[in-house]
Amino acid sequence: MSFSQSLWQANEALFQSTLQLPFNRELAAGTLSRERFRHYMIQDAHYLVAYGRALAVTAAKSDNAEGVVQFANAANEAVVVERSLHDGFMRDFGITAEQFAATPLTPACQHYTSYLVATAWSAPYPVAVAALLPCFWIYAEVGRDIHARSVAGNPYQAWIDTYASEEFHALVRAVCATVDRLADEAAPATRTAMHAAYRDAARLEWMFWDSAYCLAQWPTAAAELPKK
Length: 228
Known about the structure:
The chain is an all-alpha fold and 228 residues long. The chain has 11 helices and no strands.
């Protein structure tokens, strides 16, 4: 068993729980409310900016030129290509640039993005890569599962197709190969830290989808409103 396969196996129950989240079940059924999808899109767009930063920092830490290219290209994908996709969906769902800019990160989004950026800056290169892997891998496998279950005429089909695509899965395989190489060269303590970083990010993936379905906001939001 490769190291990346051991990461997946150790977190299989969490992945199955992610598949069963109401957000993903209703997305496949085409019954997810527009309000919840809009909420998700805005937070995901915020997330991609921070994810791009984490990828860029990780690229700078790479132990070889191939890693610099791999993660710098992934940062470009996150910030430029996928943001343009979000722009199209936001127009389709009536979200203006002003509305997006005025919407703060939710607690789950802020937690996840802060974790990735902090890990990219502070952790050794192998641990930073392990923390970045769940966003690639879990998204791809959730996309594949939803694509297989998606109903005819699903209003979210274009979104589903993006994460089920072979191009996206090729990126996942490349990152898994990098994780396996780094783990093969790492000390036992680093491999243990890689497992912990992957698990933490996988938990935050679960929280991100759950937060979108719950339309989560900061608990103090109401208290911060101006008094009449």
